[in-house]
Amino acid sequence: MEIIEILKNRFVLNRFNHKNISWYDIEKRLINNPEKLSIIKKMEDTGGEVDLIIKDNEYYFVDCSKESPKLRTGLCYDKESRVNRKNFPPSSSVMEMLEEIGSELLDEAMYRYLQSLDDFDLKTSSWIKTPIEIRKLKGALFMDKRYNATFVYHNSADSYYSSRGFRTMIKI
Asked: What tens digit of pLDDT does each residue of 40-72 get?
């Protein structure tokens, strides 16, 4: 399987210090979970450059492209914001695309953890899971890294930019 080889090559590069973890064990989990492997392939196919991340003794495959995945930019936050946009709505939204992929949007804690492992989104930004209270007020959150610090910002959920995309994850 091509996706397994891609993931194995990234794992072997040991980017995130996969000490005491056997690729064989990870590969076995993937092969025994074809649905999750299919989701990871969709993450990869949309530019995620997926890699293994270990957080709190849990294993996740996460989008680790240096900048926000290119095939996931220029999107409003969700369908409601896209449909209600008065001018020039994009063809899709983050939440609609997430549904197609089947993965989970990073929240603030996971985004900060990812940034602790390496520098991401130095030129782009990524939408993150937005609390319902903010979403009810038509807002949404995004994050990036500038000046060697990770920032969280807000925007109206119907906004979209070519330099803002989103990152996803799946627990295995």
From this structure: 999 999 999 999 999 998 999 999 999 999 999
DSSP 80-134: HHHHH-SS---S-BHHHHHHHHT-EE--HHHHHHHHHHS---SS-EEEE---HHH
CB 38 within 8 A of CB 102: yes
Q: Report yes or no: 120 and 64 within 8 Å, Cβ to Cβ.
A: yes
How many CB atoms neighbour CB 171 within 10 A? 12
Distance CA 22, CA 43 (A): 23
Domain ranges of the chain: 2-171
Percent of the chain clearing pLDDT 90 (strictly above): 84
